[in-house]
Amino acid sequence: MRLDIVSIFPEYLDALNISLLGKAQEIGLLEIDIHDLRDHTFDQHKTVDDTPYGGGAGMVMKPEPWALALEEILDASPVEKPVLIVPTPSGEVFNQPAASELADAVHLVFACGRYEGIDERMFHWAHEHFDVRLMSLGDYVLNGGEVAALAMIEAIGRLVPGVVGNPESLVEESHSDDGLLEYPVYTKPSMWREYEVPEILLSGDHAKIAAWRKEQQAERTRTRRPDLWTKHQDMA
Ligand code: ADE
């Protein structure tokens, strides 16, 4: 999978070079390029923003540097119409089904905006060349799209075949197909301080362990995420 990320803080994205995603780049499963939006400005101050028409607080990102940065990426794209993800609190919710869907794409481009957002005309232009997806991590506001892009790329990247060594570890985790949260996990020693591992996990009875884990998942989901519990029950 090819990923291009445009930002005015390219160094924010350095974290993509460590751990699983760093390794995935080394072995050629992911090809990630970071682009500095300011490289597509022509004034001395490398200006990317200006005051909003109609007044109001904050600054708005100018459309031209975005179009120039994205045109350069388009020219090198392996596909006709790449997916352009714009992280924004006013987008559709990014969740596990969205991550799964996007993991099938050949080329993803992330446009990390800052300030009050990007001039709306950039989106009109972008729709002609990209499959544009405005996506939100959740109902809270970050200072810009970089942290959201990091989270989305990690969630998507780990679903690309080969990135996670043992694909079974993708099956029994929170937000996987059954819509339940993950069960609690324990490791050695069986007694740590005054806390014991639940006896059933030491029993060797795999059927009983599986049933216990399912109960724990149900209980956790019901108490921590009543919204998911309702959905799960509707699914059944
Ligand atoms: N940019 C600012 N806040 C955001 C959020 N909640 N999700 C995605 N991008 C954002």
From TrEMBL:
Catalytic activity: guanosine(37) in tRNA + S-adenosyl-L-methionine = N(1)-methylguanosine(37) in tRNA + S-adenosyl-L-homocysteine + H(+)
Pfam families: tRNA_m1G_MT (PF01746)
EC supergroup of this enzyme: transferase
Localization: Cytoplasm
Keyword hit for Secreted: no
Lineage: superkingdom: Bacteria
The keyword Acetylation appears for this protein: no
CDD domains: TrmD-like
EC annotation from Swiss-Prot or TrEMBL: 2.1.1.228
Region (Disordered): 214-236
Listed HAMAP family: TrmD (MF_00605)
Listed name of the protein: tRNA (guanine-N(1)-)-methyltransferase
